[in-house]
Amino acid sequence: MSGGARDERPLLMLDSGIGGLTVLREARVLMPERRFLYVVDDAAFPYGNWEEAALRERLVALFGELIAAHDPVACVVACNTASTLALDALRRAYPEMLFVGTVPAIKPAAERTRSGLVSVLATPGTVKRQYTRDLIEQWATKCEVRLVGSVNLAALAETYMRHGLVAEEAVHAEIAPCFVEKDGRRTDIVVLACTHYPFVVNRMRKMAPWPVDWLDPAEAIARRALAILPRIDGEGPVARDPDIAVFTSNRPDAVTRRLMQGFGLVA
Ligand code: DGL
Question: Which Enzyme Commission number(s) are listed (predicted)?
Answer without folding.
Answer: 5.1.1.3
